[in-house]
Design brief:
Blueprint (H helix, E strand, L loop, with lengths): L7 E4 L2 H10 L11 E3 L3 H8 L11 E5 L1 H9 L1 E3 L10 H10 L2 E9 L5 E11 L1 H11 E6 L1 H12 L3 H7 L10 H4 L5
Helix pairs in contact: 3-5, 6-7
């Protein structure tokens, strides 16, 4: 697979993922109304238990436009209240209800899926953001389930160096401070 970047995301849900990979679109978004963009491959492996969780057997790399990703970040609200960042809990709840995107920061994961000290961004899309994602932002969709399976097998066998060599190359997203200021807890 080509390089992994801040505009690549993993998504899950076996039925929807198989359709998306086949049709190269993600028009069905998510059955619960939120589509989650997970730019971290290992966080996605943690979330889906290496693609073995029921309904999460297919792992996709979805490349989206930088403009789309940044639109979602600009229009996002943190998924949890942070004193000092939000004026008060009621204001945050109103912002969250109105926002077409939400951000949560979860511990990044290592090859054994143990938490690391730094955090990975998760970006949830709904409403207008989900529609834009499906109709405008998707550049490509690749089924990376075989790669996830291969890396997982190497990890199970204790071949961590070999597993590391197969990991998609990830790099920090070069976001301007003003793009993320309202999203930093």
């Amino acid at each position: 697979m080509a390089g992994w970047s801040g505009t690549r995301a993993c998504c899950e849900n076996g039925r929807i993922s198989a359709q998306a990979a086949q049709n190269r679109r993600r028009g069905q978004v998510c059955e619960r109304g939120l589509t989650w963009i997970k730019p971290s491959f290992l966080w996605m492996m943690y979330r889906s238990h290496w693609g073995t969780s029921a309904g999460q057997e297919t792992v996709l790399a979805v490349e989206i436009t930088r403009d789309g990703f940044e639109w979602a970040l600009r229009h996002a609200c943190l998924s949890s209240y942070v004193r000092g960042l939000h004026p008060d809990r009621d204001t945050w709840q109103r912002e969250l209800k109105r926002a077409p995107a939400r951000v949560q920061w979860d511990p990044e994961r290592d090859l054994n899926l143990c938490p690391l000290p730094h955090r990975a961004l998760q970006l949830g899309l709904s409403g207008e953001a989900s529609s834009r994602y499906a109709d405008e932002w998707i550049v490509s969709i690749s089924d990376v389930t075989p790669l996830a399976n291969e890396i997982h097998a190497l990890v199970r066998d204790g071949e961590l160096d070999a597993a590391t060599r197969l990991l998609p190359q990830e790099q920090g997203y070069p976001a301007r401070e003003e793009l993320l200021a309202h999203l930093r807890p």
